Amino acid sequence: MKRVVFNQKGGVGKSTITCNLAAISAARGKRTLVIDLDPQGNSTQYLLGAGASEPGPTLADMFEQMLHFKLVMKKTGEFVRETPFENLSVLASHPSLGELAGKLESRHKIYKLREALDEVTDEYDAIYIDTPPALNFLTLSALIAADTCLIPFDCDDFARRALYTLIENVAEIRADHNADLAIEGIVINQFQPRANLPQKIVNELIEEGLPVLAACLSSSVKVKESHEQALPLIHLVPNHKLTLEYEALYKELERAMRKSKSGSTGGSRKRWVPV
Length: 275
Prior knowledge:
Blueprint: E1 2-5, H1 14-27, E2 32-36, H2 42-48, H3 59-67, E3 81-82, E4 88-91, H4 97-106, H5 112-118, E5 126-130, H6 137-145, E6 148-154, H7 157-176, E7 182-189, H8 196-207, H9 222-229, H10 233-236, H11 241-262
Parallel strand pairs: 1-5, 1-6, 2-4, 2-5, 6-7
Antiparallel strand pairs: 3-4
């Protein structure tokens, strides 16, 4: 399973959601890989902590290799780094990714990430891809390489307007490049259940038939503490309300995936395909 966490809007929690779902996956014994395509490197810093600044292979090294074909090419697995957490690995970001993306795009390398991930698909039970807050070459590459797309959403009107454009973009990528791409769902992040506007927006999205997931993620200062200590919530505060919400989200996604694979509806929402 290759899941991309994608939203063109910044500050919606893509890296936090990516890393915490991946950490839960790894804690449950699944061989899990995080791919950090954002040049800011938030997921890399979150999972490697101080180790992020130590010498080691990055995605930039892998992309450089794609630009300069050699008779002997390193395998994708040789660019993967282990994190301090059992079963959890990362293809680390690098600030030069943005510049490299332009070079790759000019050389029409849009399918190279998919080819690279095909090499390691059998080595991992789950692959999570974090993306930049823009529909650029790196994000397109991720959506072309992925099986499913998870959309973080914070409840305001600007985010709602952007959501419709985002869904249209996913539909276009599905039509032109990746016929198997499906939207797993919209994750309501930083949810405030006692506020009227967030609840109103969520209800309206559901009424419109959009695939809003049942598990919502609350706001909490523990997220900032988690970032600072480079410890996903399941390792920092395993019994905290937000950690339990992440576990509920993980379970909801796993149930939907199992039913999708078995072809059973069972009263549960199938993976949603944009049209």
